[in-house]
Design brief:
Outer membrane efflux proteins (OEP); two-stranded parallel sheet; 11 helices; 66% helix; disordered N terminus
Amino acid sequence: MLKIKSISFFSVIGIATFFTGLAGFARSEEAVKKITLTEALELMNANHPRIHAAEASLRGSEAGLRGVQNLPLFAKLSPDMKYRRQQSELGIEVADAGLRQEIRDTSYGVARSYFLVIYSKQQRDLSEQVLQILNKNIKALEIKMALKKTPEDEIKMQKLKLGLVEAKHKNSLAITGFERAKALLMEEVGGRKKIGIIEPVEKDFPSYDLVGLLTPSFIDEMVEKTVEIREEVIKSSKASQILALEVNAQKSARFNPKFRTFASGSDIHYIPIGVQGRGDNFTPEAITVEMPSSLVGRKPDRVARAQAFADRGAAVEESTKNLIRLEVRNAFQLLLETRTSFNELNKVEPELKKIISDLHDNPLVFLTNDNAELFEKAGKMLGSYNQTKFITMDNLADLERITSGTFSVGLTCPATITNDGKRIK
């Protein structure tokens, strides 16, 4: 279950750095270009090397099929050649699914980093507002103490100055987090040299009303639809068919004591299948297909061994479907948990902003102990609210990735659900 940890207010303003994973950043004098998420995804499609690599793999598979089709006549007379042609055709489908999976996964990375920049900027702005409030109150208290100094005022001044030191440190962390998030976004869309410095146009996140939609029956429907179209399932299914064809290929070779397999002309390790995780994101480990480059022995022994690898391929396909069902269900449960926190904080968000605004505009009001405590709680809850909004958007983008667009609010692929929680027919 998602839990927003109880932390001191001044820790909240540095929380943006917890979600960034790119080490180092450099300020630049280049002009910042404001872009939409759609424009960020277009940049990714045109520039990202991971997508270019997947496109190259697809071209390689297509070249492999042409190689089989263009063999000399004597080579085409080999009894296993019709199976090699079918395996090559299936290999293209595997590579095509791999390309679509890479686009889907990279699109999620772009969306997550795009929303991370928005979130980091919100936390930076909140930290700067905190600094302004503390500075105003220090000045107001200095004026008050110049007229009449009391022991209580001296203690308050010490607390304010200590708070200011910590707030400055946290503000610098928030600024760093914002810059690192921008660097991550530039990397996810394909690299800084080609793209330049970019930032989201939006200052806040879109809102979606999905509470009435996420019923058990709806989730069950999404699970089964995903299992039909998810790229890993397609890859495992095609790989299983390739392995089954190898049994027939081995049967066709009557007298050869050593006979090559399809793996002699292709990389069986290119077919990574399944999903898994460790630690807090633990899921059961995926299994993969296997096939040596050649099989040795009499025909019955070679066929039996090929059949064993084919049986393993069928198990891989079944395991992949089970893992994806689990992944989809877990993703929906995480969204439901996050929405609960979001809805509660969303109710009080206007009041929280008013508290901070009032303390900002009326410095001396802050000097009572009750208002100081209120300031800390309001700031902490506003930081948590910003965090929850970011996590909600991250969940939605990840669900689009995990379901291959079966469930989509239109962040990384065409929407299947509107922002008011209605299905698009």
